[in-house]
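Entry:
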Amino acid sequence: MSYGISSRERTLLEELSRRSILVFNPIEASNILQESRKNTYRILSRMESKDLIHRIEKGKYIPTEKLEETHIYHIAAQIMSPSYISLRSALHHYGFTTQVPRTVYVMVTTPKKSISLQNQNIHFVKTSHFFGYTSEEKLVIAEPEKLFIDCLFYPEYAGGIKKIKDAMAEAKINGKKIVDYALKVDKKSLCSRLGYLLQKTEKDFDEERLKKNISRSPIPLNPSGSEGIKNDRWNVIDNI
């Protein structure tokens, strides 16, 4: 791989590695090389033709060596900023489900179209509730408590309510934190579904505190499901 690398190309790769920059853009490359934007684009184009770097999408690159040796979750979480891994991807990461997802789910603050990388689809999900994430060995990912909040907002990206319930049964959850997060997003239907699932999976949490913010009218546990058995405590119709 080192054959035919110019000094400027080598400088860029070494400096990206030194600064722990995985995904970079032309502005960062221009600053590192102290080159004009025009010259930087020429350098990047040559590096791409030599397979020294890979263009993820317009204006986003990754060193080819890093692309080959880095887990897709780490890469996906750095394509947009801010962002974090969640939903079915995080369920798998934490071992709450054994199913290997074919799509990588990334929570973002602005809409973005899906892209393909490493033969996998990366799907960006816009959220208005951007909090509750952590960094594990440089992987930015939802905390378990926020993960289940995200899953209940987007059950279609988490395998559905039944899979969410099964995953919750496997998870270690901080009861106070998940109630705090649920009240922070302030969505009554979510609080109803969350309280019901926490109770059904025998988690320890402040039921009375969460119950103050539940839906006043009965809601289906599975939003797209049919009729079921009503639970009066959480105003949930269990249709799974």
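The first helix runs from residue 7 to 18.
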